[in-house]
Write a structure and sequence with these properties.
This protein is α+β, with helices and mostly antiparallel strands. The chain has a single domain, classed as Nuclear Transport Factor 2, Chain: A. Helices cover 22% and strands 34% of the residues. It is built from four helices and seven strands; from the N terminus they run E-E-H-H-E-E-H-H-E-E-E. Helix 1 packs antiparallel against helix 2 and helix 2 packs across helix 3.
């Protein structure tokens, strides 16, 4: 039954509320969250499952690769120049993801438990990147260690729950 209120001549319907049966637990949503979508994408990447990756993505898809380089003062390493790419077409995206599977693996298939916040990631690894990144949920994954820690950042559109970006260093 809906509750109807009359306020200064207007009608407003309150949302329907359904009570759970006594002793029953609240029903959890079957809809996956952004972290689960990002994990599925990384698992598909590691399995070289291009069809699985494609099914989890939306276009345009934004990509950034950024290599580590020796710091100018020689004191260690710093992020080098970034290479950005936007892939708009379905066929181009499939080809891009196929090529990506030949050169990228990610050691952790679940997002980092305590990553930097999105604001920090946008100001460092994604500084100057496509503005679309700012509208995505960012999920950081460890790729492994060489001289430095390598990461992957998966950007998930929070409304559509599709992967819309990938950052690799």
């Amino acid at each position: 039954m809906a509750l109807v209120l009359l306020l200064a001549g207007s009608t407003v319907s309150a949302p329907r509320i359904s009570a759970a049966r006594p002793g029953s637990a609240p029903q959890a949503s079957n809809r996956p969250d952004g972290a689960a979508i990002a994990s599925r994408f990384i698992k598909a990447l590691n399995a070289k499952d291009v069809a699985g990756m494609t099914a989890l993505t939306e276009r345009p898809f934004v990509y950034r690769a950024q290599e580590w380089e020796t710091a100018k003062d020689g004191s260690g390493f710093e992020l080098g120049a970034a290479a950005d790419k936007t892939v708009a077409g379905r066929r181009a995206l499939t080809q891009f993801l196929r090529e990506l599977t030949t050169r990228v693996t990610v050691s952790a298939e679940t997002p980092a438990a305590s990553p930097p916040d999105s604001k920090t990631i946008l100001a460092t690894q994604l500084k100057g990147a496509n503005p679309r990144w700012a509208r995505l949920q960012l999920h950081l994954f460890a790729r492994g260690f060489g001289d430095v820690e390598h990461v992957a950042i998966v950007g998930v559109d929070p409304g559509r729950l599709k992967v819309a970006g990938l950052y690799i260093n």
